[in-house]
Structure formats: C-alpha cells, structure tokens
Amino acid sequence: MIDPNLVSLLRCPLSGGTLQVAQASMVEKINAAISRGELRDRQDQRITEAIDLGLVTTTGDLIYPIRDGIVCMVVDEAIVLPAKMR
Fold first, then answer.
1. Are 73 and 64 in contact, with CB atoms under 8 Å apart?
2. pLDDT tens-digit profile of 1-55?
3. Cys staple from 86: which of 8, 29, 60, 82, with CB 3.0 to 4.6 Å?
4. Helix, strand, or coil here: 32?
5. 0.90 exceeded by the pTM?
6. Domain range spanning residue 61?
7. Alpha-carbon distance 9 to 81, whole Å?
C-alpha cells in the first residue's frame, strides 16, 4: 500500500493533474493484459513486467506503475490504458 498523504502530493508529470491509487480489480485486469502482451507504454514498448499497484490519471488513460513499493513517475514509461480498462 502507498501512503495516502504521498498520493495527495503527487501529480501527473505530463498533465499536472491529480492521481489516484488504482483499484485492485483494475490492477488484476492490467496484469492479465500484460501477461497476454496487450499493453504498451507511451513509447509504444510492450509492457512485460506485472505491477503491484498503480497511480491512475484523472482521465484514466495512463497509469504510473508501482513495483516493489517504488512508483515510476517517468512519463514515457507510463502504461497506456485502453478505453475498456478505464
């Protein structure tokens, strides 16, 4: 789990908008799509490593992955979420 106080301070480095912790059901869907090779990052690179949690943008089109307790806030490594996962 990520500290809610930290989440309230973080902003999307691309849009400047707020972020929210992804629901467990969304993380499950994302990891299933990753295992099928369906998800890509903003550089169009296939995502191969499952996530533990994630921070979703207010528009729901990007998720910043959290792996081993570390949030990756690099814009180009944000996972692009298809409309069916939003």
1. yes
2. 789 999 999 999 999 999 999 999 999 999 999 999 999 999 999 999 999 999 9
3. 60
4. helix
5. yes
6. 4-85
7. 23
Give the tokens for residue 22.
């992804």
**How many angstroms separate the first and last alpha carbons of the chain?**
21
**Residue showing tokens 């307790």:** 69
Q: Based on the structure, what is the number of domains in the chain?
A: 1
* Distance separating alpha carbons of residues 1 and 32, to the nearest angstrom: 20
b/e code 37-54 from CB counts within 10 Å (16+ = b):
eebebeeeeebeeebebb
Q: For residue 25, count other CB atoms closer than 10 A to its CB.
A: 8
